[in-house]
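Quick one:
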Amino acid sequence: MIFNSLSFLMFFPIVTLAYFTLPRRVRPAWLLAASYYFYMCWNARYAMLIAGSTLITYGCGLLIERADARLIKRLIMAAGLGSNLAILGFFKYYGFFTDVLGRVLALAGISLHVPAFDVLLPVGISFYTFQALGYMLDVYFGKIRAERSLLRYALFVSFFPQLVAGPIERSENLLRQVNEEHRFSFRAARDGVLIMMLGFFEKLVIADRASMYVNAVYDNWHAAAGWQILLATVVFAFQIYGDFSGYSHIAIGAAKILGFDLMDNFRQPYFASSVRDFWRRWHISLSTWFRDYLYIPLGGSRCGHVRRMTNLMITFLVSGLWHGASLSFVVWGGLNGALQVLEGLLPKPAKKAGGVRRVCKTLCTFVLIDLTWLFFRANAASTAVRMLLRCVKSFDAAAYATGFSAAQAAALTVGIAVLLAIDMIHERGKTLTAWLDRRNLVMRGALMLLAILAIVVFGVWGPGYDAQAFIYFQF
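Output:
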C-alpha cells in the first residue's frame, strides 16, 4: 500500500476514526495491527523480518540495561547489531558483495562460484532496521531507559506513516509519544491535512510528472543531446526532492492527525549555500543518524584535521552504500564527502555572505549537488561517466524526441515555482500553517480549495493511472 493510492485513501480514515473511538488502552494495539497490515500489503512474509528485528532489539535493550559489567553490555550490543546488520546485508547486499568478491578474485585467477538467491528486497528494511538499532544504541549509551512494553516498542518500530521511508525517528521522540495519551485535535487535524496536501502536491504534480522526462532521457541517453541530459539531471533534482519530501510530508501530516509529531526531514535543501549546509537540510533524519551513531563514535571533529576528514569520508561512503547495493551509490556518497573535504580546505569568509554573494553560493552548491545526482540516478557509475562525456561531446546534437509536451513542461515548471515559493516562506522562518492562520476564514477556504484543484488538475493520475511507488522505497 502506498500513500498515492485509492487503498490508502480508504485505509487512513478508517484507522483514524477507529483510533479515536476505541478505548485508550487498546489504541496502541489497534495502531500496531494497522501498521502490520499496511506493511503486509506489499509482502506478508516480510512482516516476519520486522517482527524479528523488533524482538531482537527489544530483548537486547532489556539485557543491556540489566547487565552490570561493561564487557557484557558490549557483547549484547554486538550481538544485536550483528544480527540485524546480517539480515539487512543478506537481503540488500548479498548479490553486490558476491559480485565484487568474484571480480576481485578473478583478477587473481581464482574462480568463485556462489549460490544465487533471487530475493525481493523488503520495502523499507533500511529504515526500520536503523530505527531499531538507534533505540538499542540509545539504551547502551544511557540516553533512555529500555522500554518494558513489547507492544508499545513494536509500535515504535513499525508505526505505519514513517515505516517504509522515514523519517527515521529517535526513541526519545517517537517512543515517548507512543506512551502518551492522544486526544483528537481539530487544529492538529487541519494542520495534518494541509501538510499531507503539500506532500501529495510534491509527489503527484512535481515528482511523477518530472519522472516522465527524466526516464525518457536517462533510458535513452545515448540518443539524447548533451543539453537534454543536463536538463534531465536538473529535472531529476526536483523529482527526487518532490518524491522524497512528498513522502515525508504525507507521513508527518498523517502522524499529526493521529496526535504524533514526527521530525522534519527536509529544510529547504536547495537554498543551501554549501554542500555541508545541504546535508544539514536533506534527509535530516538519516544525516543526524549517521552523525550520532557513526561520525561522532569515529572521533567526529574532536580529532586532528586529517582524521576529521577521514571520518567524514567514511561516513558518506557508508551513507552511499546504505542507499543501494551499487557502485554508483558509493561513488555518489564519496563525491558528497569529497566536496565537503574540499570545502573544509577553503579559507573561511571573514563575514557572513549576503545578497548577491549568497545567491551565487547557492547556485554553485546546486550545480555541485546536481552533478552528484547524475551518479545517483544512472544505472551504473560507468554509465554516469559516459553520460558526462556525451554532455561535453554532443551538447549541440539533434534533440531526442522524449514525448514530453510543452503543456507538461509548463505544468512542471509552475509546480516547481510553487514549491520554491513555499520553501522561500519556510526559509524566512515562517510555516505554511502559521501563514494561513493570519488569513481570514474565506481566504483560507479559497486557498485550500485552490490547492485541491491544483492537485486534481495538474497531478499525474486519472483513468489507467498506475500509482508510482516512492523512489526511496527501494532503499
